[in-house]
């Protein structure tokens, strides 16, 4: 992956979090402790601060370092969980160019590590309700010949469906689980942040030739 693309991904995702931090905090104020926007901003600003260093690395090393940064800089549950996602993906990153099938394996490893770290799975009103369907869709599409635009559309549909599904779920993991049935009726903040980030990454990949 080209250094220019790593840079685009870092600045694009950091901007996404900055633009949506109030929304994330507002969602977390309904079923948590109103800090998801602040936590995510702290993590992504720390990654942005080391972007010159990250873009010197190969993609796997950059993912690992970004994951370690999330882990170290973010106090809330989301720091270690996003850290696990990125570090997990880095473990399965090939040295050279990454093709779609290889990316599927990377994402699967990252999602698996989030499950392990969170002792959680789909249906518990967390970021996994977006990550798992997106990962499954990507795997299915990687085995069929479809064009990039359709692939990206499919991913975004799954991310938005997964996010919306969290509204009717009762949280059984994380702070929101303390609310029991009262967690029903609200979107999960972590599902929102990962959905927004996935859409941002899709847009970057779709519109910059450095990232193809
Ligand atoms: P905290 O809950 O410590 O305040 P954040 O508010 O930053 O941390 O993040 C909350 C989000 O983290 C939740 O909305 C949920 O998506 C995710 N989360 C919390 N616990 C888990 C878990 N065990 N497994 C997966 N995701 C989780
Ligand atoms: Mg919180």
Shape: globular
The averaged pLDDT comes out at 96
> How would a crystallographer describe the biggest sheet?
none
Separation of termini?
9 Å
Give the CATH H-level superfamily. Answer: DhaL domain
User: In CATH, what is the class?
Assistant: Mainly Alpha
Which features would summarize this protein structure in a list?
single chain, 212 residues, mainly alpha, Serine Threonine Protein Phosphatase 5, Tetratricopeptide repeat, 9 helices, binds magnesium ion
Describe this structure in words.
- The structure is a single chain.
- The protein is an all-alpha fold.
- It has a single domain, classed as Alpha Horseshoe (Serine Threonine Protein Phosphatase 5, Tetratricopeptide repeat), CATH 1.25.40.340.
- The chain is built from 9 helices and no strands.
- The chain has helices at residues 3-31, 36-49, 51-54, 59-73, 78-91, 100-118, 128-142, 148-165, 189-207.
- The longest helix is centred in the first third of the chain and has 29 residues, at 3-31.
- The protein is globular.
- The model has no long low-confidence stretch (mean pLDDT 96).
- Bound molecules: adenosine-5'-diphosphate (ADP) and magnesium ion.
- Magnesium ion is lined by residues 28, 32-33, 35-36, 76, 175.
């Amino acid at each position: 992956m080209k250094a220019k693309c790593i840079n685009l991904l870092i600045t694009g995702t950091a901007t996404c979090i900055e633009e949506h931090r109030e929304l994330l905090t507002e969602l977390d104020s309904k079923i948590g402790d109103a800090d998801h926007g602040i936590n995510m901003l702290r993590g992504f600003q720390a990654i942005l601060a080391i972007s010159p260093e990250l873009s010197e690395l190969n993609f796997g090393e950059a993912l690992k370092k970004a994951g370690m940064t999330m882990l170290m800089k973010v106090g809330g549950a989301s720091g270690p969980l996003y850290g696990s996602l990125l570090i997990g993906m880095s473990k399965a990153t090939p040295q050279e160019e990454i093709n779609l099938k290889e990316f599927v394996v990377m994402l699967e490893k990252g999602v698996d590590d989030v499950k392990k770290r969170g002792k959680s799975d789909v249906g518990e009103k967390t970021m996994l309700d977006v990550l798992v369907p997106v990962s499954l869709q990507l795997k299915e599409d990687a085995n069929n010949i479809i064009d990039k635009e359709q692939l990206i559309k499919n991913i975004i549909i799954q991310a938005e469906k997964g996010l919306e599904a969290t509204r009717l779920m009762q949280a059984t993991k994380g702070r929101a689980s303390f609310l029991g049935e009262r967690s029903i009726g609200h979107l999960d903040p972590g599902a929102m942040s990962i959905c927004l980030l996935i859409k941002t990454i899709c847009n970057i990949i779709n519109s910059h030739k450095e990232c193809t």
